Structure formats: C-alpha cells, structure tokens
Amino acid sequence: MKFTKGTIEHIAELARLEFTEEEKEELALYMEKIISHLDKLDELDTSYVKATEHIIPLNNVFREDEVENSFDRDEMLKNAPEKGSGCFKVPKILE
Amino acid sequence: MELYDLTVYQLSDLIKSKKLGVAELTKAIIDRIKKIDGNIGSYITVLEEDAIKQSEKIQEKINKGTAKSPLAGIPMALADNICTKGIKTSCASKMLENFTPPYSATVYDKLLSEDTVLMGKLNTGEFSMGDTTGNSYYKPYKNPWNTYRVAGDSNGGGAAAVAAGLAGFALASDMDGSIRRPASFCGVLALKPTYGLVSRYGLIASAPSLEQIGSVTKDVTDCALVLNAIQGYDKRDSTSVNKGYTDYTRALVNDIKGMSIGIPKEYITGEVDPEVKKAVLNSVKILTSLGAECEEFSLPVAEYAASVYYIISSAEASSNLARYDGIKYGYRAKEYKDLLDLYKKSRSEGFGKEVKKRIVLGTFVLSSEYYDKYYKKALKMRTLIIEAFIKAFDKYDVIIAPTVPTTAYKSERKTKEPFNKDYMYTVPANIAGLPGMSIPCGVDKDGLPIGLHLVAKPFGESTLLKLAYTFEQNTNFHKNRARI
Predict the structure, then answer these.
(1) Counting C-beta atoms within 10 Å of the first and last residue's C-beta, which end of chain A has fewer, N or C?
(2) pLDDT in tens, A22-46
C-alpha cells in the first residue's frame, strides 16, 4: 500500500499532530513497511470468526450512590499547565 | 556474596533476625545506585531521602514486631508509568515531565502496606513503547551484563535494576513482553500475571487490553512473595477479576512428575539463535528428566501474533494518548494560535518519535476506511489466538519456548525495520490474557543470559511457579549474577 503525503497529513489531522515535510516522508515509509507486514493477516479467512472485544467477560458493576473519598479541586488543578480562578485555562474558543 | 546479590527472602531473613538493619540495607542500595546507575540508567528518579526516612520507620515497626510481611524492609522500585502520590511519574516522556500524581496506583498502596521501601522510579521506553532501550525521553538504559548491549525493550528498567542489584525487586507493566523480554536479556525472572489478577488502577496505560503489571525478581520464591502482595480484586479497576486470595508460596514445590508440557514448533524452528535453541531444548531435557512429559506441537497462529499486536496496541495507544491535549496536565506548547493549534503543538512537541509513529499507525487502523480491514480483523485474529491456546491447554499444563529468539543485542542496532517479529514469542500471552513467565535457562558464548518462556492457562500462576521452582531447585542458572 502506497502512503502519499496527503494520506499522512489526513491521519495527522485526525490525531491532532503535525509533522515537518521530512517527518512526513519518514512516516510514509514507516507506514508502508509496517502495513506490508500487517497485510499478512489477509492470508486467513476470518469471515466466520467473532471479534474479541474483551478477553474477560465484563459485566456492569453497580454500587450504591454514596459519596466516597474524592479529590480537592486545587489538588486536581496542580498539574495543569495553566490555571486561574480555580479553573483550567484554555484559549478563547468563542468569538 | 554482597548484600545487593541477595534475594528478597534472604534479605528478609537477615532483617527479621536483626542481623541487618533496614536503613543499613537501604543506604547500601542507594550507594550502589550512585556508584553504577550512571552507567546503566535504570532509574529516572532516585528517592534517597524518602527511602532512608521510610526505612527508619519500618525498622521501628520491625523492632515492635508489627511489620510481619516477608517484604518488610525490602528495597523495591516501580516503573515510571505506575502512579506514586506526590512523586513524579513521567512515563519517560517529555509530555509528563512535570506530572506528579495526586493518587497512588493500587499496587503501590499494597506494597506500602507490606512495609517495602520505594527506592525510586524506573526508566522505561516512552509510554512503554519501542523495542530498543534508547526510547526513553531521558536516557537509554543498558544491560548490566554488558553495557554495550540493550537491557531489552519498553519496560526494561526493572530488569536492569534487579539484575544490577539496584533494587530487591521491581514492578513494571507488560503489554508485549515488556518485562519478560528484558528479564530474558538481563538474566532475571519476570512474571506477567493473568489479565485481571493484579489491579491496573494507577497504571498509565498505553494499551489497556494487553497490559498487566508484573514483577521482576531474582528468583521464583521472590516472585511468589511479590505476587502474594500485589494480587487481588480492586473495585477501582473495572477489568479486575475477583478470584479471592491465593497463597502462591504453596506452589513452591519441587515436583513436576506427570506435568504435561507442550513446545510449539513455530517457536523453535526458523530464526532462532542456535545457542538459544540449544539452551531451551536442554531445559526440556531437564524437565523431562524431572518427570514432566514434553512434546512438540504445532501452533500456527503464533506466526500472526506480532501483526495482531501491532494493530491492537497502536489502536489503543492512539485512543488512550488522546487525553494529552495540553489542558488538564502534561506538556503545553509555549506558542499557539488557537485551541486546535494548542492541541497539535503540545502533542507534537510533547511526544517522542516512536510514540507519534504508533499514534499515526493506530489512527490509521481505526479510521473508518480501514477499520474493518485492520482493527476488526485483528480482533477476530485475537479470537483465533485465544481459541488455539485454549485448545492447547486441553492437552498441556504449560507451553514453553524461548522468551526471545536471541540474547541481548548490541546497543547500536537501530531499528531500521519497524516491524519486530520477535514479539510473536511473548505477545500471545498479552493477546489472550494468559500468565507468562521468563526464567533464566543458560548463557551464550558471550556470557549473556538466555530466557525460557512459560505460559499457562488463565489464573495458572501456581502451575508456572511450580514448574519454575522445580527447575530452579535442580539447576543453577538463577544464581548467576551480572558482574558490574
């Protein structure tokens, strides 16, 4: 499978990443190489196989709606790169 | 023998009988870290003062007779993707360079309640990715047997530290053999438990459906002691399984008569290093002489395991690492135009090369056009791999193979080839959620350790421990120490 600069740019946009022209070329090569290995899976017909979403049976777990130990607001803000007035600070998103 | 060469239970005996003070031991290990870890690079953070303070507190408890755990006073270390309240947890990434978790992983809480001493946080590949040891944002880590060789990949700081006597034992996560492959390269023992046996709460995951926290120890008795401490249901981890408590030291029995062992042909033919193959087949001979029934069988799905792993792990990583957006925690770019640009710049500057590659691959296999062809296909293959192992375990108690088809390779071997087929040896245990263990079974002509890989059915840890214990009791491989 051929990876064009356009394909890499599209994936990067979806992943919220950006790359230099050089990195894009390197990534295209990486993807071509690795996908050629992954295509080996086509050898097997799996049309009749059910996909495994979880390896252990997962059931809903319910509990009483009781207040348990939680975190202090300041504690949760401690690692924020920018904060103010007890909030996370983000760039303006509305005009 | 030096203090740092001793196993956990040997140290524990000395501590309990008051022949060794906990602070004395802690200081000895700190000194050793200072002396040689500059050359090995197994730690990202060393907690000198905290560890000494903690050791003094534990000594008081021991004197009062209130510290009863066999792990009391033992110096240990945790991989830097296991959250430790108030202690930097970086995942070896620039993204989390300044991240100090406000909570602790369940395994750390458990080890604290066993009165262990945390020596520091261990080096890993960034977000435990990559198959070379040069993938940490901070520094590469090296093999204590030969520092020109790699210590193994993704979560190998633990194996390097334990092998070099820089920690009594270590916990790290295993998503593809991440602790078993380094254990094989560094001549120590690693156990990746069954999925759900050990809580993942507080583990900063990359591929949560594959990943388990496991132990790295010098021998199998230590492994059982550590597993006793970290096992158990945790309501804070929705994938935790409630199986009750098992005393794994009861599995330390020197008897494997009648145990049925299968050796998949796919793992001993092909590109296996002849010395590795010889050591593994020699181990089979030993096990047979001890009364096990060993035979070869065919496990064709093994050939596809690495491909399935790349798809699932990258897909999960791309989705899991979406949380690093420069808002709530982690790195934020200094300059940006708007919110979207903030995301892109923070992520592009904060993540390293290998991580970004995996995110790109994961995003691709999850994209609507290719979802069925790759991701869905991998989940179906996952079913086939699970079924093949279930079928094998109808006949065999344990499946054995090499952990890695080579010994530790030279550090300068760069991964030009992005696809590492060697994962096929260790990833089936992650794909199928099975317990997997690597134990030393020999050395090659350069004196580098070789690992024997054991896999059992879900929650078959006792079977693995029994086999490994019997093997240890009748061989001396586990007594080899890296001379550094």
Answers:
(1) C
(2) 999 999 999 999 999 999 999 999 9
